[in-house]
Amino acid sequence: MFARLIFYGTVLLNRTEQEVWFMPIGHLLDQWEIYKQFNGIAKPKQTRTIDDVIPFGI
What we know:
It is elongated, with a radius of gyration of 16 Å. The model has no long low-confidence stretch (mean pLDDT 86). The longest helix is centred in the middle third of the chain and has 14 residues, at 25-38. The protein has a domain at 2-38. The termini are far apart. The protein contains 4 helices and no strands. It is an all-alpha fold.
């Protein structure tokens, strides 16, 4: 599993191997998810608009 994460971090996210080793695992997985969404490999779990967050009339 770590070999695959090192591959993702170094080749696909353009980080050095040392940066990937010292990066918190949650941050690395977030960066990988952003990469997948940006390249169309994955879809976002939720999509929100400003109307969903701020109700009309405020």
